[in-house]
Each structure stands twice: as structure tokens, then as C-alpha cells.
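Continuing the batch. This is chain 6 of the set; chains 1 through 5 are on the previous pages. Same settings as before, nothing changed between runs. Recording input and output for traceability.
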Amino acid sequence: MVSVSVFGSSGIRSAFRTVSATLVALAVFALAPAYASKYAAIVIDANTGKTLHAANAEAARYPASLTKMMTLYMVFEALEAGKVSKSTRIPFSKHAAARPPTKLGVRAGGSISLETAIYALVTKSANDASAALAEYFGGTESGFARKMTAKARQLGMKKTTFRNASGLPDSAQKTTAHDMAILGIALREHFPKYYGYFATRSFKFGKRRMSNHNKLLGRVKGVDGIKTGYTRASGFNLVSSVNTGGRSIVAVVMGGKSGRSRDAHMAELIRKYLPKASTRDRGPLVAKRTVNPGSIAVAGMLALPKADIPTPKARPQEVVVAAYAPEPAPRPAAAIPAGTRDAATEIRNSVARVDPVKTASTTVSGWVVQVASSPNQNDALVALSQTRAMAGSILSEASPFTVPFEHEGTVYHRARFGGFTTKTAAWNACKALKRKNIECYAAQQ
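Output for chain 6:
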């Protein structure tokens, strides 16, 4: 039996009745030497994309259970695509059942509904449920983590790497406050149908009632989520979403000394910066898949200004990439003939494959030229840079970009040039590249 309670507007307490204690807690939070190197914060106006406050926002930090925000993003994406339903059974392997607390305690061989797993993540922050979801959607938790990282790149989270689905300690699992703000905004914008789960105050699993770790729900007016997190290495983390009076912000605090001081600091940031947020909604800030012409990058988020400057009116085009769709295996690239210039050799050595799988990836044009595919995004970017340098005028008007896709548990990154208006233009460009000993193929979008 699962029962849930969601905090309603009628029960919202007075906005900041504990603000008198906030500044005292802030002093403890800010001055704790053991946590000074872990601290980071950012506040973004979710209506305009304007950065209202930032402190160490681009510095590497451990996400802890904020990781589960991306796990849930992937789950919501599958729900929206009709790949699963809320009643889909999620089995627990020995690996999932053995995850350390906090956890539901489901035994290996058992299962729960997908919706129960969602509630377990947003309230209990259950590590075993996170691992079970990862294995269901990714085959293995590490395979799912690679998908999570690829999705992070699509959203514009440039400094985030996931190694597991829960946030349990892993020295290679890193993020930034800015990246977590991007993810918080993306969850709100892309999944309004499911975002309400984050406002769940508690849910009952069997005979146990589990309360949400986010104590600002119901205490600070307008807070509707999102997620807490803690490990010894990370300190106390929190991403908060606030919607009230037409104003909307997403705020992140990382590296708190305690849950109480972290919450007090977040409450103070909300109190200070929410009144500075705009009441005018300028539309979506995060696209599911975008291309920035003329740049070599996986774009995702409309550039969020670090200073008080207006958000550009022109927004990136959005193209949805199908999630969890099976694709044929990549085709090995043809060998580069002896005597090829050093740049071409570097591309061959660093980028493993050129794969001829046709998928929608950009709305820049109907045709693209692909020059490489690699499990390492940096190698794909190197291939784009070196190819452009070698190609000269052939690609002078083309737009380089990368597109992630998953095959047999590995995330690959296609290196492509878009902007070709006809099949003939793309084919001719590829022929010209081959004359320079650059392997490629042309594909229609």
C-alpha cells in the first residue's frame, strides 16, 4: 500500500516567520572552516534566465543525492515518451538491494511500481530504488550513469559527470551549482505533468511513512521542490524552486555544515532575491536539444547571464531526441592512407568510429556531414576542430556540433557539421573531405 500527501496552498505557513534565526545560522554556515571549500550557491530568475546571485557557482562540487534529480529526469522522459507507465514494475537486483541507506529495504528479487520508486526518490531519497531504476533503464547502473552524463551535456550541464544514479560517494562524480540550477529549471520546464512529485510531503510504504527531506516545503512560501543531498564529502546540498506572485526562481546551495544551516541560508537567499526576480515570463530557458551555429559544443541552455544584462530574445531552436531508441552498431571508420597529414592521424587515433546511423539531431538544416563518432566527447570535439582546420573553405559555412547516442551500454558522441541545404551540397562536401583523406558520410535529418 502506498499513500501520499502533498502540501496544499491552504496549508502554507507564513513566508519567513523564522527569519530572525536565519542570520545566526548563516554566520555559522559561512564561517565554518571545514566547509568553506565546499560552499557554492546560485540564484537564477526562472522567468528570464538572469543570474541574481552567484558564489563559486562554476566550481566543482560533489552532487550527493542531487544526482537523483537527473535520475528522475530520465524517468520522466521515459514516461512522457510512453516507454513505461506509472504501474510498470521495477525489479530489484542483488546490486540494487545491497545499496547502503537511505533505502526502502526491498529484497533482491522483489519489485515496486515505477510511481512508488519516484516517491521513494523525492522523499526518502532511496539509494536502492535509484539503483533499481538505473538497471531497469540502463541495463547496469554504470551504463545508466553514462546516459545521465550524455543527457547532462544535452541540457548544457558542461561540468557534470555521473558515475551512479544515487549520488553515493564517487570521486569522479562531480557537478557545479550552476549545472544543478540548469537541471532544476529543465525539470520544471520539460515535465510540468510530473514536476508536482517534488512537492510530496510524505508517502507511506507498507507500514512506514516516509517524510520528505526538504524541510522548506511548507515553511517558505512558494517553495515547490526540488531536492536535498548529503555526503561527508559534499556537505549539505539543496536545490529549491520557488513560484509565487508571478515571480519564479531556482536556487542552489551546496556544502552546508548542517541541514539546518543550509536551509536557513537558502531561506535567506529566497527572501533577498525573490523580490528582484521578474514577473514577466520570457518563455523556456532550457531546450532538450539545441545547436549553437558556429560553435563546437553540445548546446543546451540559453546562455544565462552572469551580470545584470537582459536575456536575448532569440532562443535556441529545439529538437527532441528520442530516448532509449535502439540504434545499429557504429561502422568502423575506413583506414587513413599512409602519408596523411598529422592532423588526420590525430583524428584517426583519438576518434574510434564514424557511424552511418541517421537520426534527427539538429534543425539547422536538412542535411549534415558526419566525420567521427567517439565514446569520448572531448575526442569528438577535437575531431570537429581538426576537421575544420583541414577542410578550409569546404566547411567554412557549416556549423559544428556533437550528438550523443547510446549503444550497448556505451554513450557515443557523433561529430557533425550542419547547414547543408540540399543532399547534393552535403554529398559534395563529403567527397571533397575524402579527397583530403577525411572519412565522412552525409545524412538527412
